[in-house]
Design goal:
binds zinc ion, three-stranded mixed sheet, 2 domains, three-stranded antiparallel sheet, 116 residues
């Protein structure tokens, strides 16, 4: 379950930003190619945040679809559930990944008061 490792990585980023303040909310973008199951990430996060952060630190996950661009015909293809690196227009496999590899913290909401 790599969601636990991702949660720890996320907690490190959030904790550095929070600098002792309570964390209210974390907005996260996760690309489809990361193969993250949102429910599993939420579950892992609930355990990890308890040990590393103060405040509710509610996690909001936005999933970014995986898109590839064809180097042969220039068409862009959005991948479905099955990850197939193949152009939908000309079936070429000469493709570049446009999006889907994100693991990005968009915003972190913290309280303005610093804890003593
Ligand atoms: Zn193509």
């Amino acid at each position: 379950m790599h969601e636990v490792a991702l949660s720890r990585q996320l907690a490190r980023i959030v904790s550095r930003h929070a600098a002792g303040r309570e964390v209210l909310e974390v907005e996260l973008e996760v690309g489809h190619l990361r193969q993250v199951v949102p429910e599993a990430l939420q579950f892992a996060w609930s355990a990890v945040r308890k040990n590393t952060l103060s405040g509710p630190a509610q996690l909001n996950i936005t999933q970014i679809p995986a898109v590839i661009a064809c180097r042969n015909c220039g068409a862009r293809t959005q991948m479905g559930e099955v990850l197939d690196f193949c152009c939908a227009k000309c079936s070429s496999r000469e493709v570049t990944t446009v999006s889907g590899e994100e693991f990005r913290v968009v915003s972190i909401e913290v309280t303005s008061e610093r804890k003593q």
